[in-house]
Amino acid sequence: MAGEKCEFEQTFSFTPLPSKNPSFLQDKDISALLMKWSMLGRISAQSYSFDQSFYPYNSDRFAQCFFKDPDVFSSLKNIKDGAWVPLEKEVVCVYVEPVPCTKVSMELFDPIYSCGIVKPSGYVVKCFHDVYPDYDELRQMLQEEDSEHYYAVGREARGEFLFRLFKHLCLGGELCQYEDTIDSYISTTKLIYKDLISVQKDPESQKISVISTVLKVSAHDDSGHCYPGGREEEQTFAYLIIDPFKRHVTLFYHCFGVGDFSL
pTM for this one? Predict the structure, then answer.
């Protein structure tokens, strides 16, 4: 939780950037997949500029200022009963989880293709489950820690924002229609990740590296958890994705539920 304000703590001010729309939200093919996965109309990415230099050690303070900024607060919305509604009460505290974000390729997912989760054709291997009649090895690997493939990609890699994004897309919304093949999950993850994350190339080594800082955030008012969503749910999430050079931050949000049925 963000600490108490002290005299020397830095403050940030934010300005909405309504014209900055991620391309994935305008892509008809991606929208069709999000509709199939019951996420369409419940996922958003709002961008803002900020006025001070950001450093990762200031993450808690940055997030606290973000949710208490009047221009941000007035633009924040949750989904309630299928409609976007503004927050009702002032945010009193913000919980911040730094999320590792270092990957610049899709190699992280290579082990999935070689450990029995996916066939060489790209089809996901089906498996038995006590509760879900139509289950597969991919969802089992993503959700169940006692799965033999749970750490197929590695313990640290599971914490990466790239993997978390992939997991969110694979699990989808309340009426998700799961894919038979892994291809759409991988390609959509790649496109959204590329849209959200900023990178730079070292002029000497030519090595590409991520410059974005990613924070998973949740806000509370005086009644408890208020954002994202009205209650905590694994597939209800909010990430702040910060570009320290451009001084831009994107709030990437999804609220679990029944997505739109039309484009």
Answer: 0.94
